[in-house]
Amino acid sequence: MEDHKILIVDDDQYILDLLMTVFEKEGFQNVLIATTGAEAFSMTTQNTPHILLLDVMLPDIDGFTLCGKIRSETDVPILFLTAKTTDLDKLQGFSFGGDDYITKPFNPLEVVARVKAQLRRSIQIPSQRTRKQIYDYGFFNIDPNTGRLIVNGARVECPTQEMKLLLYFCEHPNQILSKHQIYKDVWGELYGGDSTVMVHVRRLREKIEEEPSRPKWIKTVRGLGYIFESNTNEEWL
């Protein structure tokens, strides 16, 4: 973990100092800080952190908007760290591409644990699947070894958690999967509510479906969950 670069974005110096101290005690030796959105965007594009902790209420731009800008440049895992606690705020954070949402006040050790979990997941995307090369569904294909998603011939950036969810669907074609089962298997945690899974499914549909409002691949089974309908017998190349 000590080689992973963490960028903490917050305008509260106390929080910055607290998190830096805790991360360093946990063995992270490469912790960067930013206090404005402009500084964070510049550091993200120039220093390529492995993970980003992002406050929502920054002095020059709100964190949700900044997350969207960063998502256009990189799929680095983004964890919101904010005092905005409503379900609508959380849904908005996920809709802009966030991978996790931690509310203030927080336990700094929980923050470290969530960061470690996200880093493990981002590493596991290529390492867990080395038997074959590419899932190919014609309109889109995924290389599990590189986390590369190609849709209609063009590369599409896909954040870590969305990629894990898409690969999970690919590995369980034509099966009805409950939201509880998906959350447990993909997020590796106890069930945290429908909204997290629903938002990530919606974002995947926007990426891989020709008509997201009339999905061909990831379909809702009312009252039961979702099913990834694979209409090809040759999924691997």
Structure characteristics:
237 residues, 8 helices, Rossmann fold, four-stranded antiparallel beta sheet, disordered C terminus, five-stranded parallel beta sheet, single chain
Relevant CATH superfamily of the largest domain: Response regulator
For the record, the count of structural domains works out to 2
Query: Into which percentage range does the β-strand content fall?
Result: 15-25%
**Which strands sit side by side, in order, in the main sheet?**
2-1-3-4-5
Distance between termini? 34 Å
Tell how many strands the DSSP assignment holds: 12
Number of alpha- plus pi-helical segments? 8
The structure class reads: alpha/beta
Give the helix proportion (percent range): 40-55%
CATH C-level name of the largest domain: Alpha Beta
Mean pLDDT: 86
- Spans of at least 5 consecutive residues with low confidence: 126-131, 233-237
Q: Return the CATH architecture of the largest domain.
A: 3-Layer(aba) Sandwich
Largest sheet: 5 strands, parallel
Which overall shape is indicated by the principal axes computed on the Cα atoms?
Answer: globular
CATH topology of the largest domain: Rossmann fold
Secondary-structure element series? EHEHEHEHEHEEEEHEHHEE
Rg calculated over all Cα atoms: 18 Å
Q: TL;DR?
A:
The protein has 237 residues and is of the alpha/beta class.
Task: Describe the protein.
The structure is a single chain. Residues 126-131 and 233-237 have low confidence and may be disordered. This protein has two domains: 5-126, Response regulator (Rossmann fold), CATH 3.40.50.2300; 128-228, Winged helix-like DNA-binding domain superfamily/Winged helix DNA-binding domain (Arc Repressor Mutant, subunit A). The longest helix has 20 residues, at 108-127. It has helices at 13-25, 37-47, 63-71, 87-95, 108-127, 160-171, 179-187, 194-208; strands spanning 5-9, 30-34, 51-54, 78-82, 100-103, 135-136, 140-143, 148-151, 154-156, 176-177, 218-221, 225-228. It has 237 residues and is of the alpha/beta class. It has a five-stranded parallel sheet with strand order 2-1-3-4-5, with helices on both faces. The chain has a four-stranded antiparallel sheet with strand order 6-7-8-9, with helices on one face. A three-stranded antiparallel sheet has the order 10-12-11. Helix 5 (108-127) packs across helix 6 (160-171).
